[in-house]
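Data card: per-record layout.
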Amino acid sequence: MPKEPISRSIQPQPQPSSSSSPPLSLNDAATLIINQLPPSFRDFAFEVADVILKIPRWQLVAGILLFSAESGNLVSPSLDPSWTTNGISLSTSTCPECGKQFTPYRLGQIFCSNECGLSHSSRPQSSAQGA
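The structure for this 131-residue chain is written out next.
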């Protein structure tokens, strides 16, 4: 008998209630998660859910996770150890090419612009190898 796809076998689970504050709706929770993404990803996710697909944001988040799992792409997610305490942090960085202070648009961004990245990569590399 063929295995049922993950997306059809998952049933909504009841949310635990807290006496101190009302529980978040799924859409509010998804919005909190999406707000942790870098601005370019965040804006794109909101546009896809709200404007293009016109679906609740939680459906976008759940759909992406399910699609990734079913297609075998959810094997090793990108995790940053700082997320356990700080959430995703895009603090100001210094460009190693021009020395300018900038706020990264994505995780792992090193240079302030494509021009600085290209300038750095087109410079001849010094060889530390001996003959």
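Known properties of this structure: The two ends are 64 Å apart (CA to CA). DSSP finds six helices and two strands in the chain.

See the next section for split statistics.
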